[in-house]
Amino acid sequence: MLDERKQAILSAIVEEYISTGIPVGSQTVVMTRNLGVSAATVRNDMKQLEREGYIEQPHTSAGRVPTDLGYRQYVDNVEHLIHLRPALKRMVERFFSHARAEMRTLLAETSRLVAEVTDHAAVVVGPVASQRLIRGAHLDRLGDTLILATLVSDTGQVESRRIDLGDAVSVADVEEAAGRFKAAMVGQTALEGLNELAALSLAGAPKDPPAEGALVIIAALARAFDADDFEAQAPYYLGGAHRTAAEGSFRDPADIHRVLELLEQQATLVGLLRSAVDAEPVAVLIGGEIPLDALRHCTLVATGFGAGGQNLGTIGVVGPTRMDYSTVISGVAEISSRLGYLLEYGSASKRSRRPLA
Fold this sequence. Notes:
Blueprint: H1 4-20, H2 26-32, H3 39-51, E1 55-56, E2 65-66, H4 68-77, H5 86-98, H6 103-118, E3 121-125, E4 134-141, E5 146-153, E6 158-164, H7 171-185, H8 190-203, H9 212-224, E7 236-239, H10 241-245, H11 253-263, H12 266-279, E8 282-286, E9 298-307, E10 310-320, H13 325-345
Antiparallel strand pairs: 1-2, 3-7, 3-10, 4-5, 5-6, 8-9, 9-10
Helix pairs in contact: 1-3, 1-4, 2-3, 5-13, 6-13, 7-8, 7-9, 8-9
């Protein structure tokens, strides 16, 4: 645990290095912070910080730069990291005031917003099939024995089936089956709805059994669809990958190539993001804390988003360890909160539903 002065010196070094990319000397700390001590005292404290592994000297005559441990100490102990700058907050507010809750488009556009706010590559991972809700279930009679059944997910994915029943069914039977189909599916996940439909087709409804013809149709519907029809892999949206190529904060240009390659490895990155947010609401993994060699000089910031008490997906930012932690952490938290509000209520015009602290 650092005392108050050493913490202030470390914060000064981190913030100055993030801002300029130049190793920070004791004189710079004295000029930028009102510590009430001499440059000699600051130098002694910096030597102690170096011995404890919080900062290092990249060149013999240079100032100091933060290590992964130094960045970790900074992130864990600086309260202002939760406050997004007003101009960026207004950008987020404008985006969500015009956004609509069609999942696929919304998540793709959100990935670009996160990249713009943070100035780093951003990933948004949508809900997997088991979490995806059905928003539409329709049944049409095409002929005496032929029906068309359609399911629409909340991501806009459409699955249709032309079903030949073999025997003629009446308009009334189709209408009744359509009502049962809609009641079973809409507002539930594909798996939940299809399980309910299958149970109905086997046992009927004891208190309100369907007509025999409608029951035949319901059984055919239960056989025609499968929960696996709805994208087994979580939808993955990448925004601002070009920002990685333009990064001036990586010491080794080869790191840029490694990061760009990893951003295309969806399964690997999705797994990393999910494991990170399982541990804490806004996860910050720095350097060696990330279990991937390609990201050993990077920071990953991630948080989940959801609606109605259900986690629906993850937002992540990947950049160099020399990143503006305040903007990235507060930006990801703000966008996650507003995205969840929009998905739950269909409008983001109200204030964020949860504080960022």
